[in-house]
Amino acid sequence: MKVLANDGISKSGILALEKGGFEVITTKVAQEQVANFVNENNVDVVLVRSATKVRQDIIDACPGLKIIGRGGVGMDNIDVDYAKSKGIHVINTPASSSESVAELVFGHLFSGVRFLHDSNRNMPLEGDSNFDGLKKAYANGVELRGKTLGIVGIGRIGQATAKMALGLGMKVIAADSFIPSVDIKVEFFDGQSITTTIVSQSLESLFREADFITLHVPAQNGYIVGEKEFEIMKDGVGIVNCARGGVIDEVALVKALDSGKVAFAGLDVFESEPKPEMTILMHPKISLTPHIGAATGEAQNRIGTELASQIITLLS
């Protein structure tokens, strides 16, 4: 059987699939050529990340397809229900990238509270001629320790983020309409651990209480954070989105940043991805990454081997 890993797969995933008797194709096929390639090469399994979309047209055109796999959590680039209605298995790897995304959240938080994103832009330009001026400009940082982190969506990634926040000495609050409460176990290098319970509260109360807010929700039909939500937040709040583009109203975000209501934002995902708006890309108060939440070697190894395990189980 053949597996097309159109957006790539880790070496560990390839080896596991090959050991299970599968041929793995890692040729990058253009979106408009995927269906033809699948049919011409008798591909049984198509694996994607976020770049390739598997919509109804591809599903209809490829009657021999047995599995569609997403290396990651969200499956908004796959017509899941339609695929299942055609007898195709749809799989993903919800647990594999949680720690990687959570660490990126804190990369953006640290960048925001200490102006790293802006100083890294300006030091190469002015570091030799305006050192004291830059030192003064970036002198008003704040600590994360002792502050309140509001987590919108306390699923696997939200929980991983909560663990890191607790380890830093932050207070953690959460809002999740599907998870009323969750026990968070923070494990240490020597085998010891502590466990605390986080009880979900209303979104409005979270927005009012949090010093920093991080979003961990799937793609939505509308905004979770818009102009009205920014208005009720604390002055000087920081906000991070490493979940999905379109959950924050970017026009309202820029307005809130310009007014000082929001001190900084960290964005890994964007409304108009893969072509983010220039007002977002050029804003001095936004820390930017190009949708790399799960892009660590460790996460990709876990994703590859987990996909391989599911495929072997389903098709053996």
Give a structural overview.
The protein is an alpha/beta fold and 316 residues long. The chain is built from 13 helices and 13 strands. The strands form 3 sheets. Strands 7-6-10-11-12-13 form a 6-stranded parallel beta sheet, sandwiched between helices. Strand 12, helix 12 and strand 13 form a beta-alpha-beta unit. Helix 1 packs parallel to helix 13. The protein starts with a strand and ends with a helix. Keywords: NAD, Oxidoreductase. This is D-2-hydroxyacid dehydrogenase. It comes from Flavobacterium psychroterrae. Belongs to the D-isomer specific 2-hydroxyacid dehydrogenase family.
Structure at a glance:
Keywords: NAD, Oxidoreductase. Belongs to the D-isomer specific 2-hydroxyacid dehydrogenase family. The chain has 316 residues and is α/β, with parallel strands linked by helices.
Helices and strands in order:
Elements: E1 2-5, H1 11-19, E2 23-25, H2 34-40, E3 45-48, H3 56-61, E4 67-70, H4 80-85, E5 89-92, H5 98-113, H6 116-126, H7 131-137, E6 148-152, H8 156-167, E7 171-175, E8 181-187, E9 193-199, H9 203-209, E10 212-215, H10 227-232, E11 237-241, H11 250-259, E12 262-267, H12 278-281, E13 286-288, H13 297-315
Parallel strand pairs: 1-2, 1-3, 3-4, 4-5, 6-7, 6-10, 10-11, 11-12, 12-13
Antiparallel strand pairs: 8-9
Helix pairs in contact: 1-13, 5-8
InterPro entries: D-2-hydroxyacid_DH, D-isomer_2_OHA_DH_cat_dom, D-isomer_DH_NAD-bd, NAD(P)-bd_dom_sf
Protein name: D-2-hydroxyacid dehydrogenase
Domain D-isomer specific 2-hydroxyacid dehydrogenase NAD-binding: 107-293
